Amino acid sequence: MTSTVKKTLEEAKFSPPVFDSCPHLKQILTSNAKDTVYRNYGLAVNVALALKLRNGNIPLYKTSDGSKVEYKKLARLRNKAVRCRECLESLSCTYFCLQCSHVGCWKNGHASAHTKSTGHVFGIDSQTGYIFCFRCGDYVGDQRLEFIRQSKQGERTEPIMNNLGTETIIDGSRPPSLKASTGLRGFINMGATCFMSSIVQTIVHNPFVRDYFLSGYHAKCTKKMDTCITCCIDEIFKVFYGTDETKGYGPTALLTAAWRVKNSLAGYSEQDAHEFWQFLLDEIHKSDTELHPELDDTSTCRCITHKTFAGQLQSTVTCEKCLHSKNTVDPMLDLSLEIAKISKDKVTLNDCLDLFTSKEKLDSMTICSHCKKETTRTKQLLVRKLPPILAFQLKRFEHSASSSTKIETHVGFPLFLDMEPYTVSETLNSNEQGRASWGLMTYQLFAIVIHIGSVNTGHYICIIKNRDGNWFKFDDSRITLVSQDYVSKSNAYLLYYILCQA
Amino acid sequence: MTNSDVQHLKQQIQDVLVESGKYDELSNFLRSKLYQVGWTDEINRLTQSIVTNEAKPTFSNVIERIEPKAMDIVPEHIKTEILAKIEEFLKDVVPK
């Protein structure tokens, strides 16, 4: 048992390949040519990924005498290197031959023609560094080649260090079953508790939070489940991902602890899922900073809650006469959007974001501190810092003294969301040319929480995308596979987007 | 103008586009627009259905089936907008 686990940890040094291997790749990597292959691949990937962003910045290149190479020159050199030898095409997909110095394009078939005439098999994608097998007609992968590619890309190649110490993990563990590793398990509804279970499901399937708990970051907590909500969540992670059990889980411990901490959660009426989400995130923040006080020592808290969800909003107030403006920056954990009332029949999330970031005229007249004249002012909200997980709440519920109403309007939401139009222009990292480094503001939808029914007698369900891209609907203890169309047609209340890697 | 002249001119235009950073800018602009109008979502959906219905899906056979459709469903107004931007850029760059 131990030797199997040890071997897995050794191999864990290399990241899993994105693509499966093929017989042609296996053959060349077990032949005498394999070292040349690794070397040539490394060189090709260097060129392919030369100008790719690392941590939001274009990497710095220096000549042998230490002087900086201009971006323009780098772009020119790279463009020349990736150009198809036959038709000079360089903007679309081209492939470096693994076995010679040929470069061929996909579009006009020159890469393919080269492999046919020479008997060479592999092309290295000049935009991504992935390997294409022209015999199989498909991208292929290998552990060690993927390691080379990822290290050139500047991505982390060390496995995530667990918080408990390697020895404990080796001695006490076995690999989880495939079934358990999906973490798919429903919650039994204990009486109007679906507002809680829907939110917890979005946390259970949140990759950042999942990694935090499964790496043992809460394991050293000395409190017990009856007083520590985070311990209850930790237990849920352990049980959902560690066991094969699929029948509904009764969250009794979580409920008891939640009622203890916040009295208002007790009772028979349905609570607001969004409020519970805020509450849960706060509890996790408190636990994390208690266990790891060093996380909260600067103005930016680096606990798991804040690292995952925290962004910043900038409010700009501008004098209408002299155009002098004043900025205030506030932290945010999510964006609460009013549902835009517009004339066209389908309102979308983008419409609501447009409304949120539109210039609002402030009613009161004031004396501008800059031009000293009496003037009206405009206010505009824009996102200043984007978090890895961007959460939205659509303000569907309106509570007044006399009554509560629910807005049922369907709001269309994209599966891929570009946040660039809603951010402050300084948020963009400009490189020396003053251009925005893009690709850091595109999000992918991964979970929605839906409220069905009227204000007081409603039901919550959620739909979450798992690792393989399948959408699962969680309705208490019933989990069903649903289509992308079903998701898009759903009437979302809360939406969770995860930052896409460019 | 011979074929080789055309090819050469094309190459020079590509070079200028890349070096000036205009290509990246146009590329990002196009990508953003396509997200906004739901083109990316639609392609995602179509690709999923092609992959599910294909006995042995490979990059080659999937792209063969999706590429023409993908080009076809780009909304006209986006095509016009991008072409206009490219034209404007080239006006400043290519000598008559």
Automatic annotation (TrEMBL), chain A:
It catalyses: Thiol-dependent hydrolysis of ester, thioester, amide, peptide and isopeptide bonds formed by the C-terminal Gly of ubiquitin (a 76-residue protein attached to proteins as an intracellular targeting signal). Residues 20-159 form the UBP-type domain. This is Ubiquitin carboxyl-terminal hydrolase. It is an enzyme of class 3 (hydrolase). One of its GO terms (biological process) is proteolysis. SUPFAM superfamilies: Cysteine proteinases, RING/U-box. It comes from Komagataella phaffii (strain GS115 / ATCC 20864). InterPro entries: Papain-like_cys_pep_sf, Peptidase_C19, Peptidase_C19_UCH, USP, USP_CS, Znf_RING/FYVE/PHD, Znf_UBP. PROSITE patterns: USP_1, USP_2, USP_3, ZF_UBP. The keyword Metal-binding applies. PANTHER family: UBIQUITIN CARBOXYL-TERMINAL HYDROLASE. It holds the Pfam family zf-UBP. Keywords: Hydrolase, Metal-binding, Protease, Thiol protease, Ubl conjugation pathway, Zinc, Zinc-finger. GO terms for molecular function: cysteine-type deubiquitinase activity; zinc ion binding. Residues 185-500 form the USP domain. Its EC number is 3.4.19.12. SMART domains: ZnF_UBP. One of its GO terms (cellular component) is cytosol. Belongs to the peptidase C19 family.
Automatic annotation (TrEMBL), chain B:
GO terms for cellular component: DUBm complex; nuclear pore; nucleoplasm; P-body; SAGA complex; SLIK (SAGA-like) complex; transcription export complex 2. Its main location: nucleus. It is found in: Nucleus, Nucleoplasm; Cytoplasm, P-body. GO terms for biological process: chromatin organization; nuclear mRNA surveillance; poly(A)+ mRNA export from nucleus; positive regulation of transcription by RNA polymerase II; post-transcriptional tethering of RNA polymerase II gene DNA at nuclear periphery; protein transport; regulation of protein localization; transcription elongation by RNA polymerase II. GO terms for molecular function: chromatin binding; enzyme activator activity; transcription coactivator activity. The keyword Nucleus applies. Component of the nuclear pore complex (NPC)-associated TREX-2 complex (transcription and export complex 2), composed of at least SUS1, SAC3, THP1, SEM1, and CDC31. TREX-2 contains 2 SUS1 chains. The TREX-2 complex interacts with the nucleoporin NUP1. Component of the 1.8 MDa SAGA transcription coactivator-HAT complex. SAGA is built of 5 distinct domains with specialized functions. Within the SAGA complex, SUS1, SGF11, SGF73 and UBP8 form an additional subcomplex of SAGA called the DUB module (deubiquitination module). Interacts directly with THP1, SAC3, SGF11, and with the RNA polymerase II. Belongs to the ENY2 family. PANTHER family: ENHANCER OF YELLOW 2 TRANSCRIPTION FACTOR (PTHR12514). Involved in mRNA export coupled transcription activation by association with both the TREX-2 and the SAGA complexes. At the promoters, SAGA is required for recruitment of the basal transcription machinery. It influences RNA polymerase II transcriptional activity through different activities such as TBP interaction and promoter selectivity, interaction with transcription activators, and chromatin modification through histone acetylation and deubiquitination. This is Transcription and mRNA export factor SUS1. The gene is SUS1.
